[in-house]
Each structure stands twice: as structure tokens, then as C-alpha cells.
Write a structure and sequence with these properties.
It contains 1 helix and 8 strands, in the order ββββαββββ. It has 161 residues and is mainly beta. The chain has a single domain (7-129), classed as OB fold (Dihydrolipoamide Acetyltransferase, E2P). Strands 1-3-4-6-5 form a 5-stranded mixed beta barrel. The chain is globular.
């Protein structure tokens, strides 16, 4: 039987990424991503916002991109998989952890004075999509050329595929 372990997050970076390098030279970046949902309280009708923090780990080139371009408060789209673990704290109490191992990252929002990362792939496993880029202003046009009505006249010519 096939199985799926996939997580999609769209949220804001809770803190600047912490990047480190393993003895093998592999880059690892850890960050927290905050997601929020809203609901109405059944009794009072009041709107309640629920915010969750998610621990996200990036590896290899994706870790370097996250370390360079993710900053506290910046919105991001992240895909990955869940990884469960355990550790013993200083008081000797065993604790459970849930991490998201990121496989894709797309920066959302404006460029905020930063250059956009280029699209890259490492072994077909980890991808980083470029940050959203504002489109360049279209050059002034004179009279449009006559074309048959196809219903697509208002579409941008910048379709990426």
C-alpha cells in the first residue's frame, strides 16, 4: 500500500534561520514558521485567532537559500515531510518532537530590498523556487494589432510554462 507524508505550510518566519554545517560539509538551517487560523467562539460569537509554531529544517542548497533569504516576519510557502523524534531534557524528562523536513521553499511577498534566489535542484530532491518578483512595467504600445477574439486577450504574456 502506498503512503504519503507531505506537509504544506504558508506562514511567516518566526525567527531568523540558524544555519550550521555538519562535519561532512552539509548545510543545515533551522527556522520556525508561524501559521494562524481564525474561528468563531460558539458561546460568545467572538473571533478567535489560533497561532501555531512549526519547526522546519532545511538541508543542503535549500538550507543555504533559507539562511540567506528567510528573515523574521517574512512570509513563505514550504513543502516537506513530518519527522518525529524524542530527546531527554536536562531534568531527565523524555520529550517528543515534531519537525518538518523541507523539500521546497518559495518566498512570498515583496523583495524587500533583497535579490531573489535562483531556482535550483539538488539530486531532484530539494527545490527552491524563486521569490515572487514584481513584473516589469510594460512598454507603451501604439494601436494593438488586429487579432481574432480568442478569450485570452487579457492574459499576460509572462506565463512561465
Amino acid at each position: 500500500m502506498a503512503s504519503v507524508n507531505k506537509v504544506i505550510l504558508v506562514g511567516n518566519c518566526g525567527r531568523d534561520p540558524e544555519i550550521r554545517y555538519l562535519p561532512s560539509g552539509q548545510a543545515v538551517a533551522n527556522v520556525s514558521i508561524a501559521t494562524s487560523s481564525r474561528r468563531k467562539d460558539k458561546n460568545t460569537g467572538e473571533s478567535i485567532e489560533d497561532t501555531q509554531g512549526h519547526r522546519v529544517t532545511f538541508y543542503d542548497r535549500l538550507a543555504e537559500i533559507a539562511g540567506e533569504y528567510l528573515k523574521k516576519g517574512r512570509p513563505a510557502y514550504i513543502e516537506g515531510r513530518l519527522k518525529y523524534g524524542k530527546y531527554t531534557d536536562q531534568a531527565g524528562v523524555e520529550k517528543n518532537t515534531v519537525d518538518i523536513i523541507a523539500t521546497e521553499l518559495q518566498l512570498l511577498g515583496g523583495r524587500e530590498g533583497m535579490g531573489a534566489p535562483s531556482e535550483g535542484e539538488d539530486g531532484g530532491q530539494r527545490r527552491a523556487a524563486p521569490a515572487a518578483r514584481p513584473s516589469a512595467p510594460a512598454p507603451a504600445r501604439t494601436a494593438p494589432a488586429a487579432r481574432p477574439a480568442s478569450g485570452f486577450d487579457d492574459m499576460d504574456d509572462d506565463i512561465p510554462f
